[in-house]
Amino acid sequence: MEKTEYVVIEAQPTFENxxxxxxxxxxxxxxxxxxxxxxxxxxxxxxxxGEGTAQVLYSDIWSSPENTLIENLFLSLKxxxxxxxxxxxxxxxxxxxxxxxxxxGSKFINPMQFYLDMRKTIFEKGKxxxxxGLTSVLAVSPVDLAxxxxxxxxxxxxTYACLDETTMQESLEERLGRRYRxxxxxxxxxKPNKEVRLLYTLxxxxxxxxxxxxxxxxxxxxxxxxxQGSVEEDVARIKEVERVFSLLGxxxxxxxxxxxxxxxxxxxxxxxxxxxxxx
Length: 279
Fold this sequence. Notes:
The protein has helices at 81-103, 112-119, 122-128, 133-155, 159-162, 165-169, 173-176, 208-218, 231-247, 266-278; strands spanning 6-26, 29-44, 49-57, 107-108, 199-202, 222-226, 254-258. It is of the alpha/beta class. A four-stranded antiparallel sheet has the order 3-2-1-4. A three-stranded parallel sheet has the order 5-6-7, with helices on one face.
């Protein structure tokens, strides 16, 4: 692909609160709403305009910096996960809005430049909005995705195809540090699988009947199990999930475990793994 210069002529953010059908319980609390960030971008190469859109859910409750969330609210509310989510989502929305404002008129050869420029300042900028590193990245990720969508559409190519051969084969040392000196983008890109697993996230408060229904009706064959930090109860929960697949005659399935920081230290985690392996 020729090295054409592109200009960002528009970056428009919108945000919407989505209500769950039922409360979603994880280790750190219960979430009833989640913010959906939608970013729409337009870029121009002087001849054509590419319009892109990206959406990301601001699922932030588990990564919020505890000491900065509720500084302007009553202390009696500081341990309320719904209040934390509301405050944090607002900060992330403000940060994303500011980034959209800043990038209007900016120029690039490849959207990778947006990432490279942002990674130098994103954490410090995020701190001014009361965000930690993880929530700063999450806040601006739909902006990055929307630019890639615009870039692909203006060139009528997939994002992968838009990464030219030089970019794909260059060393990642400069971007990610000496540890990745012998790595290239091609180390992370693989030929797409013809089939993908259908994942269901099993909240702490979810009934296994719900999981069984999803497996039967839509073919779920992978489950992400939210743990609560109790060795006995979590191991029992995992075994119950395995029985659901066994009763339905399904042998090819995958399980992932998400403790949401409820296992305190390596000793606690070792106890859990020892119990799980013994069952």
